[in-house]
Amino acid sequence: MDSRVLRRKRRCQFAAHPKVMVKRARKDAGKMRIPLEASLAELQETAKNCKACDLWKNATQTVFGEGMPSAKIMLIGEQRGDQEDLQGKPFVGPAGKLLDSALVEAGIDRKTVYVTNAVKHFKWEPRGKRRIHKKPNAAEIAACRPWLDAEIAALQPKVIVCLGATAAQTLFGRDFRVTLHRGEFLKSTLAPFVMATVHPSSILRAPDEETRHEELKRFIADLKKISRAIS
Ligand code: URA
Predict the structure, then answer these.
(1) pLDDT band at 5 (very low <50, low <70, confident <90, very high)
(2) pLDDT(15) > 60
(3) Neighbouring-strand partners of residue 114
(4) Does a structural domain hold residue 8?
(5) Residues lining ligand 1, Cβ inside 6 A
(6) For residue 52, which of 143, 144, 192, 220 is within the disulfide window of CB 3.0 to 4.6 Å?
(7) 170 C-alpha to ligand 1 centroid (Å)
(8) 212 φ/ψ sector (left φ>0, alpha ψ -120 to 50, else beta)
(9) CATH code for position 43
(10) CA–centroid distance, residue 45 to ligand 1 (Å)
């Protein structure tokens, strides 16, 4: 195999061993006062006061993950949008609506899925009266990582799906490219099945109706693979 392909292949495999992950999570959790072996409900309560980075200052509230503690599938987005920030729930705005209908098409009931984000506060900048989404930076993503690790440890999902580059790079490193590995099951110690696909917002941003339709079809096909993996 071409050495560049091999290097890329190695890079996309999540490196941290569970023991390393637990050690790192414990260290970070200690600093951030994340209760060890906490339930999702306890984590959610503690996260309300998180000030690990400055994003809390302009956000309405911490928006933690949501779903049944017995959920087998964990979906990870980037960060909440305007609606999510106001309502205190993940994926309830336009991207969430698209996600819901794609899940239905793939035969997955959203009520059986745990949905969270790499970053738990809304980062935005004002444009007139509107709050425009701003991409979180590496420091903000790193500051939020212990919460994601704690959620994964508490839920122990069978499947993890990263929606978009921010979530995928949070788990697989900054060199990871969703465009190269989209829809593949990746070797990872985080869960038996781990996959990255596009973020639903990218489908909403498609330049024309035909592209949007094609992208939605591909997204549903990725979700169907997950549905098959857990059946
Ligand atoms: N986009 C995300 O990544 N997460 C949300 O919760 C909403 C929009």
Answers:
(1) very low
(2) no
(3) 74
(4) no
(5) 77-81, 84, 90-91, 93, 95-96, 117, 201
(6) 143
(7) 15
(8) alpha
(9) 3.40.470.10
(10) 20
Confidence check: pLDDT of 9 > 70:
no
The residues near 186 (Cβ < 8 Å, ≥ 6 apart) are 12, 13, 14, 172, 194, 195, 196
How many domains are contained in the chain?
1
pLDDT of residue 230: 87
Res 166 pLDDT > 60: yes
Task: State how beta strands 124-127 and 130-133 pair.
Answer: antiparallel
Q: Distance from the CA of 2 to the center of ligand 1, in angstroms?
A: 37
d(CA 179, CA 78): 16
pLDDT tops 80 at residue 46: yes
pLDDT at position 6: 46
Q: Is residue 201 part of a domain?
A: yes
Can you say how many angstroms the Cα of residue 219 is from the centroid of all Cα atoms in its chain?
15
Please state, rounded to an integer, the average pLDDT across all residues of the chain.
88
Residue 6, in any domain of the structure: no
Query: For the whole prediction, is pTM greater than 0.90?
Result: no
Residue 129's domain spans which residues?
17-230
Would 186 be classed as within a structural domain? yes
